[in-house]
Amino acid sequence: MSTYKISYFNLMGRAELSRIMLSAADKEFEDDRFEKEEWPERKPNTPCGQVPVLTHGDKQIPQSMAIARYLARDLDLYGKDNMENTMCDVVLECINDVITETVKLFFEQDETKKAKPDIEKNLMEVIYPRFLGHLEKLLDKNNGEWLVGDKLSVADLAFFDLMNRLTAKKGVSVFESSPKMKKHLEKVTNIPGVQKWLEKRPVTDM
Ligand SMILES: N[C@@H](CCC(=O)N[C@@H](CS)C(=O)NCC(=O)O)C(=O)O
Predict the structure, then answer these.
(1) Which residues form the GST C-terminal domain (predicted)?
(2) What's the alpha-carbon Rg for the chain, to the nearest Å?
(3) How far does residue 196's CA lie from ligand 1's centre (Å)?
(4) Measured between alpha carbons, how far is 30 from 45 in angstroms, rounded to an integer?
(5) Is the CB of 13 inside a 6 Å radius of any atom of ligand 1?
(6) Which candidate, 127, 164, 165, 205, has a CA 20 to 30 Å from the CA of 198?
């Protein structure tokens, strides 16, 4: 039986979605974490000189989103046809857009810009409500059950990963515009494999 190994820094970062997917699918995996001092030695042994890397059997897969899509196909966490798979991809890209906007707040190097309330205001009043409103429409089309199709998919888990981290940093007020999506986060949080992961994952800041 081939095993899964996720190699990444000792952070949630770009590896967390894959870890959550494996846990939600109740798959054992090696959570191969390392500190940044070890990186120069490891870097030449990675396919793109970056992490995360998924090792499955004797194959190494780089690029977090390629890993997520590979796992989605492998673990039955994609849709049932091309259109549903594409809708999962749409949700992943929407999440990517939100992350791009959010990191401006958390990782802005220029302290004067970081303190600027307009980044925060834009996130809370424009970016998050627009994103949640878009996802709410998808949920409504599926009778409020799942973001895509009639079962749990990578779309729900990526939504969970983003919002679980956002609420940890900024509180549930990020859901002010969308109680429905707040409820959806609770539903995904309560999936046994997700719960198990939340209980056992190392506590890290990012
Ligand atoms: N597009 C890549 C970006 C990967 C990436 O930027 N990885 C960073 C850590 S988050 C890294 O490996 N940095 C060390 C380096 O580039 O030497 C992905 O999504 O996996």
Answers:
(1) 81-206
(2) 17
(3) 27
(4) 17
(5) yes
(6) 127
The CA 14 to ligand 1 mean position distance, Å, reads 8
> What tokens appear for 202 in the block?
């190392």
Q: Are residues 68 and 115 in the same domain?
A: no
Distance from Cα 138 to the centre of ligand 1, integer Å: 31
Question: Domain span at residue 100?
Answer: 82-190
Q: Does residue 51 line the site of ligand 1, with CB under 6 A?
A: yes
CA separation for the pair 113, 128 (Å, rounded): 20
Pair 61, 87 in one domain: no
Is there an atom of ligand 1 within 6 Å of 14 CB?
A: yes
C-alpha closest to that of 147 among 198, 78, 203? 78
Strand partners, 61: 54
Q: What is the CATH number of the domain that holds 22?
A: 3.40.30.10
Which residues are registered as beta bridge partners of 32? 7
